[in-house]
Amino acid sequence: MKILVIGSFMMDLVARTPRAPLEGETIIGHSFSQFTGGKGANQAVAAARLGADVTMLGKVGEDSFGDAQIWSLKAAGINTNYIMRDSSASSGVGFITLEDNGKNRIIIIPGVNMLFTPTELDNKEGLISDADIIILQFEIPMETVCRAIDLGHKFNKTVILNPAPSARIDKNYLAKLDYLILNEIETRDFTGVSVVDDKSADVAGHKLLDMGCKNVVITMGDKGVLFLNNKEEYYVESIKVNAVDTTAAGDEFIGAFAYGLGNGFNHEQCTRFANAAAAISVTRMGAQPSLPIIDEVKKFITDNDIDVGGIKFEEDRSLK
After folding, report:
1. Rg (CA), the chain
2. Closest CA to 226 of 204, 252, 258, 242
3. Which candidate, 13, 84, 246, 312, has a CA 20 to 30 Å from the CA of 318?
4. Contact 45, 78 (CB under 8 A)
């Protein structure tokens, strides 16, 4: 199946530090690094490195960061022909403070990402009609996201929304989604329920179903992940690894989940497979550099005897 990611690009500027500074405090960090990122671009790369047919639609600036973003996506095998260049603002930038415990704090400057208009999306309507799966996030204007949902619904496409950074969307759009994939903070902001474990996630998840969502996936980091709809519910425990950077774990999960849907996995298999792929990503530094290729995921699953819901490895090493 063809995956179309409509979303953002961010150049991640990462400061590694023992801990985040307190208000008014200056501390000495370990190192500085620069990585291509952005939720949309990360999710596109995540799916493409697993073998999916991916096209990216979004905006970058006429600057070196924009050049680097396009190069990174091309290297992953993504169709970049529809990425727009805009000289009226800079490419998006994310400032990331990465603590020794693997936790992060992120400030983004969206730049040209926020100049992506619904009219420009309408001009690319054919991309949506040609795609099978549409992936969206909130690092582009809300009106453009809503227009994309409308178009995906119009053409009867599978629409996945990752409502990050956390923001509310008119509940009428929730019923037009096929999958809402969100973390604990985003879940709390939608439902008012503080998600601290599988039980509280279950309460929040059913609230989201009551709001009109068809399928809900709540990712909880080291607390696991919950999938539910009105007929199915699966809780999958986190996989214990040595986490060094959690920056793109959610994006890897979404890309891997979409890859699973595109390859005919059932919901439990999609959830378990994506959980394993995300576990690999947190053991590596950076956003896109941390995202694994399919052979790495298969080896990780096999070597660690991870339950992925009955997915079998064939002799040709493809997933069936």
Report:
1. 18
2. 204
3. 246
4. yes
Of the candidates 43, 37, 67, 39, which has an alpha carbon nearest to the alpha carbon of residue 55? 43
Q: Is the pLDDT of residue 318 over 80?
A: no
- The span from the CA of 320 to the CA of 317, in Å, is 9
Q: What are the tens digits of pLDDT across the range 85-96? A: 999 999 999 898
Structure tokens at 48: 């493409």
Among 63, 100, 251, 303, which one carries the catalytic annotation?
251
Helix (H, G, I), strand (E, B) or coil at 2: strand
Catalytic: 100?
no
Q: What is the pLDDT of residue 244?
A: 84
Q: Which residue has the higher pLDDT, 213 or 14?
A: 213
Spatial separation of the C-alpha atoms in residues 242 and 317, rounded to whole Å: 27
> Contact, 191 vs 180, CB < 8 A?
no
Any idea what DSSP says for residue 239?
P
Cβ atoms of 283 and 304 closer than 8 Å: no
The full set of domains in the chain, from first to last, is 2-19+33-302 (3.40.1190.20)
What CA–CA distance (Å, rounded) separates 190 from 169? 9
Euclidean distance between CA atoms 307 and 263, whole angstroms: 18
With 0.90 as the threshold, say if the pTM is over it: yes
